[in-house]
Amino acid sequence: MRQLFRDYAQVMIATEAGGEGLNLQFCHHMINYDLPWNPMRVEQRIGRIHRLGQGHEVHITNYAVGNTIEERILRLLYEKIEMFEGVIGHLDDILERSQSTKLEHYVQDALSEDSEVIAQEKLQQLSTYMKKKEVHKVNQAKVHRYIERYLTTSGAQFLSRSPEDIEVQLTRELDEELMNRPFYWHYLDKTGATPQPMQMRMTTNVENSNGFEKVHFGSPRLHQFFSSALNKGRFTRLYEQTAPHSRTALYPWLCLNVRISYTCHRREMNYAHLASNLLTVKR
């Protein structure tokens, strides 16, 4: 069946059985015409085509009947789940811990109600469930680890830290990038005064901040970290690991990774990798 689909057919229609155990990375469009309302099972379906060897941008379309409770549930799941998936990590990392079968129970409960009023109440219960602490805690733990990695690689000095709180002394570079006080640094450069970079006190505990700045997904500070990391990550320096106490000649290379996109009625992305030896100009 897989070979028939790959070599001859343009479209394959599958039941729920098609969502498991198939490697279909030779196609990149999926339409969910009947959603199972269990996000883990939806992710399983997507994993059939969004996997190693996929050379195209994957497109997923979910169908729901308009102006119904089903459509509102789908919109709610988009808002909550894509919020997690966008930055923090893969969907399955979060939903395995948040008990996706319980989520499915809430959805089916809302869909089974004939009364619009009761269905709305069930939908509100679903929304409340999506905000429950176990989902939030997993999310915040990943945010905390990300902040620590970002500050460590940026050269900040940790003054104190706990599983939820972080207090750091910024470098001048970080202060200029994050603290938005250009006039201070302009004055400093003109007068030659001693620079005094600021300190940051942050917490990922959004319920009890103790005067620390709250950092969570969606907060301006976290998005500031993301933008900074994206800019800094465009350039990196790597060194060959040599045996200790040995005298090994190292050769400098300049490497460039480029993503090339082709867009017409379809879209394709390719990656090119170029390297040049700076001593011999060898490519």
Overall residue-averaged pLDDT value: 76
The total count of strands amounts to 8
Report how far apart the termini are. Answer: 45 Å
Per DSSP, the total helix count is 10
The proportion of residues in beta strands is 15-25%
Structural class call reads alpha/beta
Q: Quick one: biggest sheet?
A: 4 strands, mixed
**Helical residues, percent:** 40-55%
Explain briefly what this protein structure is.
The chain has 283 residues and is of the alpha/beta class. The chain is built from ten helices and eight strands.
Please explain how this structure is put together:
This protein is α/β, with parallel strands linked by helices. The protein has 2 domains: 2-137, no CATH class; 152-232, no CATH class. Helices cover 41% and strands 17% of the residues. The protein contains 10 helices and 8 strands. It has helices at 2-7, 39-46, 69-87, 91-95, 100-111, 116-130, 133-153, 172-178, 182-191, 220-232; strands at 29-32, 59-62, 157-161, 165-169, 199-203, 213-214, 253-263, 267-277. The strands form 3 sheets. A 4-stranded mixed β-sheet has the order 3-4-5-6, with helices on one face. The protein has a two-stranded parallel sheet with strand order 1-2. A two-stranded antiparallel sheet has the order 7-8. Strand 1 (29-32), helix 2 (39-46) and strand 2 (59-62) form a beta-alpha-beta unit. The longest helix is centred in the middle third of the chain and has 21 residues, at 133-153. The radius of gyration is 25 Å and the shape is flat. Mean pLDDT is 76; it is low at 83-99.
